[in-house]
Fold these 4 entries.
Entry 1:
Amino acid sequence: MHIALKYIHLLSLSLTLGIAFTIFFLSRCGGLSANSSQHLPEKVLALAKWGSYSLVALLLSGFGLWAWAGFSMYNGFFHAKLTLVLILIGFFGYLQVRQKKAKLATDQFWSILKPIYMVWICILALTLLAAVLTFN
């Protein structure tokens, strides 16, 4: 059970990181036609919804790992990972609010969200690194 929770946890984190990279690379697509770029914010918000689902899977599997093994089983990277997860949750809430506001201003959608997604990707990458070092 413990190994399955580890795999679910790392898979959810990888999925979240992949979604963040996909959204960021979609924002870099400058040569889209007017029809394609009009529907792009809706596609990004749909991807962000899947990011929310993977974050819920991360939290549930993380609580399961914590309940299964406790704090004493992991090395010092666990506390760094836990701190990054708390920062990630707060930043994800901020990102959701900014996405709603950016959806209302579709002409400024990418100018509002590009720097926020870049920071989100950095936090996710650090969290993934801490998770790998914790579960190694």
Entry 2:
Amino acid sequence: MLWPLNLEQLMHLSFEPSNMNRYAVALTTANSVQFLPLGSILTPYQDEFAFAMEPDWNGRGAIRLEGKVLKLADRLLSKYATSMYLVEVAPSKKGSLSFVWEDGDGNYIYLDIGPNETLHLYYKLIDGRKWEGVSLASDQRIIDHLVRAFSFVRTQNVSAESIVFPGGTSNRRERLVSV
């Protein structure tokens, strides 16, 4: 769960040790503190977007990045995506957070997660599949395309059982591991 607290609310909270183990403070702005779950896919990238939690963060009227957008991004990326091949995380002036995955072999995915649970997805895979659409996160069609977009990662993750050692063959069966 990701949730904003102003500093006055934070001072009045009582944290139980069992609950504190599940959350890490990700962002602190002048007006609020944001919590991300421990192990969140977003945690390693927080420096890429933390500054955008302030109103007018670019000095030209940018909409602040809201906790709801981060919560949705964490949920979608944790469930459907991966940090493998993630090459860019950037906020937009419209209050969204965009992600780019590129594997160097021609597979490319762009996902922008915005206010009001708006998703913009574009992908182009080396097997010829390509799609672009904008919809709500509740639209199963865009979620299905998100799953298809990351199929190239699932087919590249091979288990240790399929390793063939130099000078010999493995006596184990090859199998792919779904991510």
Entry 3:
Amino acid sequence: MTMRGFAPAFWLLSLVAVGAAVSSAEAEDETQFCNWSLNVQKSLADRIGRQIDPVTRLANISVRCDEKSILFIQDLRVSSSQLQPGWLKRLRENWSRTYCREQSESANAIHSGWKVETLLSTPDGQTFRLTAECNDQVAIDLRRGL
């Protein structure tokens, strides 16, 4: 299985981000983002252990409100040698764009110290951590529609 345009589970996780954008007016403090994160964890509980796209299995979701952290843990069905050059950079950029939409609940939480991350593991033992980073370049790209 080769990796072309690899974007593991972004269709699923983008739904989470869309929900965050819709409800941004409701959540302005950490308690509300914690509750939102716990609801995401609960709503995706039935997908844990299942394939969420042809090459990705959702292994777990960890919400640690005391640490201001939500972590999506995913297993890839392909080895790291099958991943295209530059895939990690593109995936990191997409991850940040997904969670840094202007005025979204997740962007506001990230600016106040929360981490929204995914941990990807390959069958050959490689792990990759993606952390959403809401910075000026992400904001500029989002305004341009990139």
Entry 4:
Amino acid sequence: MPFSILPLHLLSLAFVVVTIFLADREAFAWIRGRKITLDAVRVGKLHRRMWLGLLFMIATGLLMAWENFGALFAFPLFRLKMFFVAALIINGLFIGKLMYVTAVRSYSSLSTQEKIPLFLAGAISAISWLGAAGSALLLFGL
């Protein structure tokens, strides 16, 4: 693993963690009713920052794994990590379609049917981020 790329990968992870914290703080304020609606521009910026961080993590991850990708893919834990990364990409697209409801509707005005996709997207995101990080720690012992 090239050590010159690893710090960039970890820096992008830190960027993503901060972005998640900021986005989740906004979401929890909306859910608790402390904010009736969220600023669409801010929500959009946080979503774009998340994409930037995720794409940078994917790029630096590919650079680190490039020479040994075939060998790495033989490990079930690496395939699991790739599954979590794919889930993050798909879920990110899904969140992009859902996020603007926070700018036009209060959480309390949503029906249970309307809340379910929001909670599923949040759960999938949390599980996928933790799964990708956890599988990397187990696989590479970072």
